[in-house]
Amino acid sequence: MRIVLGVSAGIAAYKAVLLLRLLREDGHQVDVIPTPASEQFIGRATWEALSGREVTTSVFSGIDQVRHVRLGQEADLVVVVPATADLLARTRAGMADDLLTTTLLATEAPVLLVPAMHTEMWGNAATAENVQTLRSRGIEVMEPAVGRLTGKDTGPGRLPEPEDIYARVNELLAIVQGPSYAYAPLAGTFYAPDPEAQPALLGRKVVVTAGGTREPLDPVRYLGNRSSGKQGLALAETAAAAGAQVHLIAGIMDIPAPNLPHIAVEHIETAAQLHAAVEREAADADVLLMAAAVADFRPAAYAAQKIKKTDDGENPVITLERNPDILAETVARRDSTGTGPGVIVGFAAETGSADAAPLELAQAKLLRKGCDLLVLNQVGENLVFGRDETEIHILTSAARAAQAGEGSAENASDVLTLRGTKHEAAAAIIQRVTAYVV
Fold first, then answer.
1. Domain limits of the chain?
2. More confident residue, 412 or 342
3. Sign of CA dihedral 268, 274, 279, 282
């Protein structure tokens, strides 16, 4: 595939050399575009020797080929390593004052920016605003690592290791390439194009819900939850890499959905909006993954004006009413009409109770909801929400377990437990799902 590797002027530029070698060993065509100042760190000869391609920083080179536009147009992915604070600011502003920023402006390919800078620069309000704006446009900005910086300082701002960047690049390439990529779900790995490979979800429609919902109380306040949307987004990306056409119904998320092929994004806010979207999109879906954290309750009445504190010191009374049970309704509709998703996956975020452990509550919920699989997360203030690491338990319904010869869902042997990243969790879930797609 065709990758543009941008390099801006930071001391971490040497790690981009290691990334380039990894990409070239996979057989990708890589055009390196350094900024003029970055050549103070890594010279042009190094980039040309390792990429096997001509390297320039000027928009006036290769004018007959219109390189400043062509490189971006032909790229399957643009990745910038390192992305300095200056590069982030210029990209956010839409500047085109060198070959790299011109290419970023001209491309319609997915863009991955990997920041590296001093801690104070990463924490500066201007940088934070630039990152937020770039992400809102569908550009992915990786979180920097925390560790040793230039000199004796330590903190956030360190460039992630080349192997970590390489892993994310491979995930994005798998989505871009789509069905011609081979996919190993349980390992969460993606291989180079293999004409013999048959992606597990090729031609299937997969609906994924992600993030939390907000239930408005007045024009200022709402009831919400801590969901980040990271697990749902990982599921959408993994399903797309397995060949599916994905419809992502995105609630309130800490991270925006990136601009990626094979993933259509629909934004919602309330449980009622999610209900309508699921009812519409699940009608012709093959798989439904209900990863969104849906509010169980909403205020029974919406106050048109902000609720004020009163002089008498009385506490306001807020009456709640139940939201629709979207998962149970979808299962019931499928079972009664014979239409809808062939595989429905529910998610349970459980803290446990005085009477039951989280796994016991999840087993009861699986039977009550009637879905095919249920994914359990044990949650809390410092567990799961917003983190990149997770622990999941995948429970299989009695009917599906019997179909696969695995026994009954009440048995502990039917519970798959996995600890790892949310993409690794998504891979394990997708593997289980594909076993039941007809």
1. 2-173, 200-434
2. 342
3. positive
Residues 196-217 as b/e (b if ≥16 CB within 10 A, e otherwise) read ebebbbeebbbbbbbbbbbbeb
Encoded tokens for 124: 């500066």
Which residues are known to be catalytic? 225
Are 2-173 and 200-434 in the same CATH fold? yes
pLDDT digits (tens, 9 = 90+) for 271-293: 999 999 999 999 999 999 999 99
Instruction: Choose among 394, 391, 395, 364: nearest CA to 378.
Output: 391
User: Does the predicted TM-score (pTM) go above 0.85?
Assistant: no
Q: Is 320 helix (H, G, I), strand (E, B) or coil?
A: strand
Helices (H), 204-296: 230-241, 271-281
The mean of the pLDDT values for the chain is 88
Q: Which two tokens stand for residue 348?
A: 């349970």
CA 19 to chain CA mean position, Å: 22
Superfamily the domain 2-173 falls into: Flavin prenyltransferase-like (3.40.50.1950)
Q: How distant is the alpha carbon of residue 260 from its chain centre?
A: 10
Quote the Cα angle for 350-228-130, to 5°.
Answer: 165
**What DSSP designation does 33 have?**
E
Find the mean pLDDT for residues 230-241.
Answer: 92
Statement: residue 336 has pLDDT above 80:
yes
3-state DSSP of 94-140: CCCCCHHHHHHHHCCCCEEEEECCCHHHHHCHHHHHHHHHHHHCCCE
**Which residues belong to the annotated binding site for CTP?**
296, 306, 324-327, 347, 365, 369
Amino acid at 350: E
pLDDT over threshold 70, residue 71 = yes
Cα-only R_g, the chain: 24
Rounded CA-CA distance 395/373 in Å is 6
Q: What share of the chain is helix, strand, coil (3-state, %, to 5)?
A: 35, 25, 40
Choose between 297 and 178: higher pLDDT: 297
State the fold for domain 200-434: Rossmann fold (3.40.50)
d(CA 365, CA 325): 12
pLDDT digits (tens, 9 = 90+) for 366-382: 999 999 999 998 875 55
Residue written as token pair 């490189």: 71
